[in-house]
Task: inverse folding
């Protein structure tokens, strides 16, 4: 998955408030994203969202893979910065090839995970088995979404978590 396919979705996500425990805007965005593409889309009572991409033709026998990211972000700002995490977009800019945020956390954790899943859901040219994209709530405040999830919310037996800081990590 190329960066240029992922970054437009990340930029969309930067505009959506998603403080832990107040994920209603990002939940709405994700539901609309899935439904507008005709993909099976559901949420549970706490706000976890699952969007399913059916297997490509010829890949129906491949195992289902679950991709997981979390909807919320750590919301911190520098002293004196006027930013309301309940409604303001993150003010991002590029410096020396790095994306940064003016005065606040950027939310790449786990905005990039979300954006990667959206890019995979959106790209019809990818030949894949069935993919279940899982977006959990309130990870940063204690994995509340993951703990509250029913065991039958998704069906895949292989889960890849897109929330690690270390390349190749299994934790
Ligand atoms: Zn995270």
Result:
């Amino acid at each position: 998955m190329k960066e240029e396919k992922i970054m437009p979705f990340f930029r969309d996500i930067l505009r959506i408030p998603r403080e832990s425990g107040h994920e209603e805007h990002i939940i709405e965005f994700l539901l609309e994203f899935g439904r507008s593409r005709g993909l099976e889309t559901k949420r549970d009572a706490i706000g976890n969202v699952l969007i399913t991409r059916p297997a490509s033709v010829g890949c129906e026998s491949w195992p289902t893979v679950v991709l997981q990211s979390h909807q919320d972000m750590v919301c911190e700002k520098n002293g004196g910065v006027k930013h309301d995490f309940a409604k303001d977009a993150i003010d991002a800019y590029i410096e020396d090839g790095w994306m940064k945020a003016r005065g606040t956390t950027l939310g790449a954790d786990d905005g990039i995970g979300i954006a990667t899943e959206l890019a995979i859901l959106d790209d019809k040219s990818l030949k894949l088995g069935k993919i279940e994209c899982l977006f959990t709530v309130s990870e940063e405040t204690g994995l509340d979404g993951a703990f509250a999830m029913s065991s039958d919310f998704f069906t895949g037996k292989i889960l890849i978590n897109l929330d690690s800081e270390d390349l190749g990590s299994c934790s």
Observations:
- The mean pLDDT is 93.
- The radius of gyration is 16 Å.
